[in-house]
């Protein structure tokens, strides 16, 4: 059964991108194990506001694990100790009475800190803008089954499309590599006939953008796959490698 | 072809191909070593007549050296870039992500193997091929005897076995990782490739270890 627990939260506080950050430890009492991790942070912020202190800044939006807005590196894991979930789906029952919970922002050169636990992930948007789309001519809507797609391809494309772009892969990677993200975005289109038309151009420009923005070189440690809240497989990375090399050898 | 330098996947492609090439070389190397267990004369024939200072052996040595130099330079380059991409700030709660140890330590393992290689080249290649090429006095043609002399020392055996263990860790990650990077994307075959990688790494390293021990304890030249 869920109990009320007393915990200490060790949070990274940093006033701005250029300022020096430090850890603050805040004790919290009677936190229901039934509450979510972000609700616990809400309670902390309410307490801080009531004490006249500055609340902790953190990203969050839908709180149901589909928007990709929440982040947080909790006790050595992006999105916390549970697997296959985002931080907003993490519950306090994963923690025990008396625990000190360390909460840090994503740390990677590609994701500079804005304030406290909030990082700038606009690099991902720039990568998408460089080719993560299909160009379509508007007109009459074609019949859904006019282009046959093998079931396995459709399944793999859907699995890749589950990526919510939260950046946990970059946060987990010792190389600060964005390959899992980029490979999911390339794969979801490369596997489908509609995406094949621009496949070569897409692979080249998205990889070029990723390199330009300073993300690292993938060394296949597989840390991204383990921490991904959407369980995106690194087989997508192999597919991206193939798509890119195929495009390059065709030149 | 400047994408082999400018693009991250291009650089990794070079690293993978040079790595895979050296795995082929290691397979050749261990096969030749195993001859020592059976017959010294055959080994000397292979070392002096088939390899030795013949033009093809010199060209081969050059190609292998090039592969190794490229692999080393790219490793340093990629690692420096990756450290930069990771940023200066480290996590206070150190990473608890469950990954294989070797995949996190490829550079350190490689560095250890590189240092070992310098010793190894000085002990054998310098004595055999290099001296002969530059006409330095005392080039050795009794290759098997030279191996036996070197491996009669205990510290040599210990250092070599340590290097083979490091090589095993390096190869168990390197084998499948290289094929992954050249674009072998298949969820069923990737598992088999990982197993095959373990088999190949174990065969190579076990072969080297067996020969090192056999030379030290005198279980060599059995059908001599």
Superfamily at the CATH H level of the largest domain in chain A?
Answer: Alpha-helical ferredoxin
**What is the name of the CATH architecture of chain B?**
Up-down Bundle
Percent of residues of chain B in beta strands? Answer: under 5%
Low-confidence stretches of chain B: none
Oligomer description: heterodimer
How many strands appear in the DSSP assignment of chain B?
0
Task: Classify the beta-strand content of chain A into a percent band.
Answer: 5-15%
Give a written overview of the molecule.
The complex is a heterodimer of chains A (251) and B (224). With 251 residues, chain A is α+β, with helices and mostly antiparallel strands. Chain A folds into two domains: 101 residues, Beta-grasp domain (Ubiquitin-like (UB roll), Roll), CATH 3.10.20.30; 130 residues, Fumarate Reductase Iron-sulfur Protein, Chain B, domain 2 (Orthogonal Bundle). In chain A, a hairpin with a 2-residue loop joins β6 and β7. In chain A, α3 packs antiparallel against α5, α5 runs antiparallel to α7 and α5 packs across α9. The radius of gyration of chain A is 20 Å and the shape is elongated. Chain B has a single domain, classed as 3 helical TM bundles of succinate and fumarate reductases (Up-down Bundle), CATH 1.20.1300. By secondary structure, chain B is mainly alpha-helical. The model of chain B has no long low-confidence stretch (mean pLDDT 93). The interface between A and B is large, with 53 and 43 residues.
